[in-house]
Amino acid sequence: TQPCSYLGLFIGAKPNRLSTWQTVISKAPTGVISQLESLLKNFLWGGDDGHRKIAWVSWDDVCKEKHYGCLGVRDLRSFNLALLGKWRWHLLMERDCLWVKVITSIYGAVASLNRRVGRKGVSRWWYDLWNIEEGATITCNWFSKECVRVVGNGRNTSFWRDPWCTTKPFCERYSRLFSISNNKDMSVADMKLCREAESGWNWCWRRQLFQWEQSQLSLLMMDLTCVQMDDTNDDSWKWSADPSGLYSVKSGYYIIVNASIFAEIPLHKFIWCRLVPSKVSCFAWRVMLDRIPTKVNLAKRNLLLSSNSGCVWCNQGLDTSYHILNELICTTYTNNIHLFFNSLSH
């Protein structure tokens, strides 16, 4: 008999074995996710292992939220990345914990957001954790762009590399000044001079600035005018995508999945009404996206000749969603009413 499991761990398993914790700390294998998504797709479109039907809507659109005109099915890859984002958040927030100190002693500093780790000399978990923003299907910098550094005494915040004053780090916003700075690794506290100083900041350049670089420095100084430091509090992180300021898997998943969406679709409230059967709502959703098997849509997928795209009911137009559900139904309904009143008159 198979042993029982709880929260992904087998009850009675030896805790000192790596295989016991592998399913909890490791990223889900791509092959497993593909097989699970294949089952979901076949269920949605009515296919099976021996016969696949047409997928009328891309899987990325199926997984987006309903109020954006999609189905809201959970995307397993994105959800897995959102779970790994929770580990990244713990690394940023729990610097004094024992497990973070152990990892720091092995791999070095872990508080950087835009650090990239190669495969050589690191564990698979560590590589996956530090490359959750990589990939063509994932929004660029979905995690780091939502992490905002809240400066207290400024001792643990990098002046150039952390996004503590603006949404982008100064090393990206003023890349030219960063390239010629001799203080690339200084903290905010080390860069900050006493208020009586002429500039207030400890600038140190490897050469004299050009005129256009002086203009860049002036813009940088304007960004720093609103900086207020608090020596009584330590630096911390804030997750801007959640009202609580703390990272949540829900908010991380929402950012990844709905990244390419620009506006809500107001019809979703009427389509996904609880009083309407699910089958009717799904059909209305496909009509809204023009994803029903009309002759025109079949011709677009090279399943039918374009010359055979005419309507078989009226022979007066193309077989499109609008024609079938609007023009043809209205015409048929009007003709039936006309025939009904004619029959009454005789």
From TrEMBL:
Residues 247-327 form the Reverse transcriptase zinc-binding domain. It holds the Pfam family zf-RVT. InterPro entries: RVT-Znf. Coiled coil: none annotated. This is Ribonuclease H protein At1g65750 family. It comes from Cajanus cajan (Pigeon pea).
